[in-house]
Amino acid sequence: MENTSLSGSVLDLINSDHVTPATRNALQNRLNQPPITEPKFFDEKQFKRLQLTCNQLIIRLNKEPIDIAGPIDIRLANGITNGWRYDDLPNDGEAYRLFLTGINQTAEALFDHSFETITTEQRDAVLRAVQQGEATGPAWQNLPTDRFFEELLTEVTEVYYSHPLAQQQIGYTGMADQ
Q1: DSSP alpha helices (H): ranges in 120-163?
Q2: Residue 63 — very low, low, confident or very high, per pLDDT cuts 50/70/90?
Q3: Which of 6, 22, 139, 152 could pair with 101 as two cysteines, CB 3.0-4.6 Å apart?
Q4: Domain with 53 in it
Q5: What share of the chain is helix, strand, coil (3-state, %, to 5)?
């Protein structure tokens, strides 16, 4: 399923002599990868919460359908890490699961509803509480909220901006490496 809506822009650059074959292959794989609909690491409810969180954290200028939660799920299912972690955080998979439980606990404490059913403004308030280390709920006793939020925001940003559609939105042409 090749996306040709980028003709005259990043797609043309990807297919030009200015991009090495390895870079071209990586970018085309990202461009043509369908969104993950059946998670491998998370259960359905956790995955939905992760999708809502990712969508809340990234403002999409052109509302391009870039899957952020799917690559995170795949990474965790395959046991891939960046090779380090803060000593006060559990392993990546456990940290994500605690986070997803914790945001629901915080949503219920603050708004008497699950994270999935609250408004986007209320989701902002929940995520702000996590970011500021003020989230409530038993899950947070085993996860430093502000530290994990930093890791989450970094990964969400990396996944999003590694996609050619996001690169198109900001006019990034750094993939032209030759």
Answers
A1: 120-131, 145-161
A2: low
A3: 139
A4: 39-170
A5: 55, 0, 45
